[in-house]
Specification:
By secondary structure, this protein is an alpha+beta fold. It has a single domain, classed as Ribosomal Protein S5, domain 2. 35% of the residues lie in helices and 26% in strands. It has 11 helices and 12 strands. Strands 1, 2, 3, 4, 5, 6, 8 and 12 form an 8-stranded mixed sheet that branches. Strand 5 and strand 6 form a beta hairpin. Helix 6 crosses helix 9. The two termini are 16 Å apart. The protein binds cytidine-5'-monophosphate. Cytidine-5'-monophosphate binds next to helix 6. Cytidine-5'-monophosphate (C5P) binds next to helix 6.
C-alpha cells in the first residue's frame, strides 16, 4: 500500500488519541446530547491518515487496530472528507488510507482522530487554506470530540464537548492504557448514565470543571493530578462491564497513581509517576493476565499534524 501511495501526490496527517482528565456530565439536553465540562488531554498514541486523489471516494484501513473499523460510507474519516468537499464545492474525490493504532470504540476518540486528520489533510490537498477555527466548525458537525483532536494539548471542552478552550499545564504525564478487545458504544454508556440517575432520583447539576484539577495541571506534579482525575461516566461503563473494576484495582496494586475509565470506556487509563513506573506498570498488567495488551503514552501532545507532504514521482 505504501509504495502505491507514494507513487501519486499524497499527504499524511497524524492525529492523537485523547483521555479525559475530568468528565463532568449534566442531564440530557432536548437534542439528546449531554452538557459537558471536560478536560481533554491529547496523548502520544496516533492514527495516521493518508489521502490521494481517486476516481471515487473510498477508505481503506490497516494497522494494529484495524479490526472492526467500517470501510464504508459510515466511516467518520470518509464523512469528514465528503462534508468538507460539500461545504467548499469540491468535486475531487479522494482515497483515504488509515493506519490505525488507537483502540476502536475504546473511549479514546479514535474515530474522531481520523476525522480530524482527514480534515487537515483535505484542507491541504485541496488548497483551501482554512483556519483552525473554520475547520473546527466542520469538525463539530462530525462529532463532539473532533474539534479537540484538531487542537490537541490539554483543553477544556464545554457545550457537548465541542467548544474548546486551552488549559495551561506544566510538564509531561506518563500514561498506561489498558484497552479491551470489545468496544463499548458511547450512546449505550450515556443511556446507562441517564437510567441510573433516573432510578435513584438524582438530577446531575450543570457540569463545571474543578479548580483543583486546574491547579494540579499547573503544578506539573502527577501526584497532585492523580486524586482529582474524575469521570462521571465511570460508574455507567463499569455497570456495563463489571470486569473493568478489577483492572483498575490491579493497576493501583501495581503502583499506578490513579486508574480511571477513559471517556465512555472501556479503555482504562492509568497515570504513572514517571517513565520507569509506566514501564513497570505496563509489564505488570500484562504479566498478571488481567489485560492482554497495554499502550504507554505521554501527554500532552499536539493535535492533527501534517507528517508527509505531497510528492510527485
Ligand atoms: O458527538 P458524538 O458523535 O461523538 O456522540 C456520540 C453519541 O454519544 C451521541 O449520539 C450521544 O448519544 C452521546 N453523547 C452525548 N452527549 C455528549 C456527547 C455524546 O449524549 N456530550
Amino acid at each position: 500500500m505504501t509504495s502505491a501511495i507514494l507513487s501519486a501526490p499524497s499527504v499524511s496527517v497524524r492525529a492523537p488519541a485523547k483521555v479525559n482528565l475530568e468528565l463532568r456530565v449534566g442531564p440530557p439536553r432536548p437534542d439528546g446530547f449531554h452538557p459537558l465540562a471536560t478536560v481533554y488531554q491529547a496523548v502520544s498514541l496516533f492514527d495516521q491518515v493518508t489521502i490521494r486523489a481517486g476516481d471515487d471516494w473510498s477508505v481503506e484501513i490497516s494497522g494494529s487496530r484495524a479490526l472492526g473499523v467500517p470501510a464504508d460510507e459510515t466511516n467518520l474519516a470518509l464523512r469528514a472528507a465528503r462534508l468538507l468537499a460539500e461545504r467548499h464545492d469540491i468535486d475531487e474525490p479522494v482515497e483515504i488510507f488509515i493506519d490505525k493504532e488507537i483502540p476502536v470504540a475504546g473511549g479514546m476518540a479514535g474515530g474522531s482522530a481520523d476525522a480530524a486528520a482527514t480534515l487537515v489533510a483535505c484542507d491541504w490537498f485541496w488548497d483551501l487554506g482554512l483556519s483552525k477555527e473554520e475547520l473546527a466548525t466542520v469538525a463539530a458537525e462530525l462529532g463532539s470530540d473532533v474539534p479537540f483532536l484538531l487542537h490537541g494539548g490539554t483543553a477544556l471542552g464545554t457545550g457537548r464537548g465541542e467548544i474548546i478552550t486551552p488549559v495551561l499545564t506544566r510538564g509531561t504525564y506518563h500514561w498506561v492504557f489498558a484497552p479491551s478487545d470489545i468496544g463499548l458504544s458511547t450512546p449505550d454508556v450515556y443511556r446507562q448514565f441517564d437510567e441510573h440517575n433516573e432510578a435513584v432520583g438524582f438530577t446531575p447539576p450543570e457540569p463545571a470543571s474543578s479548580p483543583a484539577l486546574m491547579a494540579a495541571l499547573m503544578s506539573g506534579n502527577p501526584e497532585q493530578l492523580a486524586p482529582v482525575l474524575m469521570n462521571d461516566l465511570e460508574g455507567s461503563a463499569i455497570d456495563l462491564r463489571p470486569e473493568l473494576e478489577e483492572i483498575i484495582v490491579e493497576g493501583r496494586h501495581l503502583g499506578a497513581l490513579a486508574g480511571i475509565v477513559s471517556g465512555s470506556g472501556p479503555t482504562i487509563a492509568f497515570l504513572a509517576a514517571d517513565h520507569e513506573s509506566a514501564i513497570d506498570l505496563a509489564v505488570g498488567l500484562t504479566a498478571t493476565g488481567v489485560v492482554t495488551d497495554t499502550y504507554r503514552a505521554t501527554g500532552p501532545v499536539p493535535g492533527a499534524t501534517i507528517r508527509g507532504v505531497p510528492r510527485v514521482d
